[in-house]
Design goal:
It comes from Staphylococcus kloosii. The chain contains 7 helices and 13 strands. It has 263 residues and is of the alpha/beta class. The protein folds into 2 domains: 30-119, Roll (Ubiquitin-like (UB roll)); 133-259, Cytidine Deaminase, domain 2 (3-Layer(aba) Sandwich). The chain starts with 5 loop residues before the first strand and ends in a 10-residue tail after the last strand.
């Protein structure tokens, strides 16, 4: 457990007909301002762990970097809430109107920053991965088993990336997009190819989450919840297999079922 992610606070709880003084664990919200080449790029409201991975994944998903070797230096100053990034290049002009925006931890319109570059960055998947039902159920089970802090607080989104076999990496954050950015940043930092990997996600597959998967470049996304209609349309267009309602040994395949093989 990362102590920075949780903070114990005294609360008053109503239980069994009585008001009782007790303790509860809160998830921490942390503003991280990303500075690129000395200029403010964005402020991300996040959970204060794996912040280097978050910064890398966020910049890559926005198209600010394409490869790890474009990064000259990255320093996290968690005492002041800054990520200082120096690149080997200058940012393009399309970023000049994208700076100094707050990227909130909640969903929907607060994530408007992401929509500006989606068309340029989201990739049609070229993944050749195939999965059998047992692998799909196993990956979701691994995610649920790794989600101890969610069970404790109910306040974190969980994500993982896997190849369906030996590779499995888990991250969590108050922001659902942040959890996926941390996974992407981990892969970039460790030079792990993502094309034939699977994203496993704890929440609903919205259009934003589907676009995030396309930006990362995976071919399959799994969720225990439902997708939206627009997410399914995008998954079909971007050659991504979207699988939802993975519960009690069952699941629904909403797009590109050709990647799923019977045992």
């Amino acid at each position: 457990m990362n102590e920075d992610v949780l903070k114990d606070q005294p609360i008053v709880r109503y239980e069994n007909g009585e008001l009782v003084n007790t303790q509860d664990s809160y998830v921490t919200e942390f503003p991280l301002t990303i500075m690129v080449n000395g200029e403010e790029f964005a402020t991300v409201i996040c959970s204060p762990n794996n912040m280097e991975e978050l910064t890398l994944g966020f910049l890559a998903s926005e198209g600010a970097i394409l490869k790890y070797n474009e990064l000259k230096s990255l320093q996290i100053d968690d005492s002041k809430g800054f990520a200082h990034v120096e690149l080997t290049k200058q940012l393009g002009t399309r970023f000049q109107y994208s700076t100094k925006r707050m990227i909130a931890s909640c969903c929907g319109k607060s994530r408007e920053f992401y929509f500006q570059n989606d068309a340029a960055i989201a990739k049609t998947s070229m993944s050749k991965i195939t999965l059998n039902p047992e692998q799909i159920l196993s990956m979701m089970s691994q995610l649920q088993n790794a989600s101890a802090l969610f069970k404790q607080t109910g306040g974190l989104h969980n994500g993982a990336i896997s190849d369906g076999q030996d590779f499995f990496e888990h991250r969590q954050d108050i922001g659902r997009h942040n959890a996926l950015d941390k996974l992407y940043g981990y892969c970039i930092k460790n030079h792990i190819p993502v094309r034939d990997k699977v994203l496993i996600f704890s929440g609903r597959i919205s259009s934003e989450i589907l676009i995030k998967a396309a930006k990362i470049g995976v071919g399959v996304i799994l969720s225990k919840s439902a997708p939206t209609t627009l997410a399914v349309q995008l998954a079909d267009d971007l050659n991504i297999t979207a699988i939802g309602f993975i519960r009690d040994g069952n699941f629904n395949v909403y797009s590109h079922p050709e990647r799923i093989k019977s045992c």
